[in-house]
Amino acid sequence: MIRFLSLVGAAGLTAGVALFPAQAQMGHGGHMGDGGASHSYMQAMKSMHDGMAGMELTGKPGVDFALMMIPHHQSAIDMAKAYLESGEDDAELTRLSEEIIAAQEGEIAFLKDWLAKNRQ
User: Fold this and answer.
1) What is the dihedral of CA 104, 110, 116, 120, to 10 degrees?
2) CA-CA to 8 of 20 to 30 Å: which in 1, 28, 54, 56?
3) Where are the alpha helices (DSSP H) in 86-120?
4) No. of helices (H) and no. of strands (E), the chain
5) What per-residue confidence (pLDDT) applies to 100?
6) How do the domains of the chain map onto residue ranges?
7) Max CA pair span of the chain
8) CA 57, CA 61: separation in Å to the nearest integer?
9) Statement: the pTM of the whole predicted model exceeds 0.85
10) Does the UniProt entry include the keyword GTP-binding (predicted)?
């Protein structure tokens, strides 16, 4: 089995740190004065990256794609839920967040079913 981290190497980890500059700016409080939504967004991204980094890949493109997409989609769900819980009242973003949750949950269910049939 191939470990995901071995594929990215040190350069990938360094680039990963650069992807999250807002996290460094948040300070010890953990949020940026928005009721914690930004902190929740960063937590969703961190959970996704932690899950993907610890994943053992199989070398089977379809299986590895499905495995990696599950935490990716879960991160989108978590961010959409954080937006809905933020209390901000933007009808378009609320509708989009609800659509993201429904679509991503459906895709996660599909991927899990697919993996149950095709992982072996």
Assistant:
1) -90
2) 28
3) 91-118
4) 5, 2
5) 97
6) 60-119
7) 47
8) 9
9) no
10) no
Eight-class DSSP state of 20 = -
How far apart (Å, rounded) are the C-alpha atoms in residues 12 and 115?
27
Buried b (16+ CB within 10 A) or exposed e, 56-85: ebeeeeebbebbbbbbbbbbbbbbbbbbbe
Q: Token pair of 38, please?
A: 């930004």
pLDDT, one tens digit per residue, over 69-109 is 999 999 999 999 999 999 898 999 999 999 999 999 999 99
Strand stretches in the chain, DSSP E: 2-3, 56-57
Residue 21 burial (CB count, 10 A) = 8
Query: CA of 57: how far to CAs of 17, 75, 110, 120, in Å?
Result: 22, 19, 19, 13
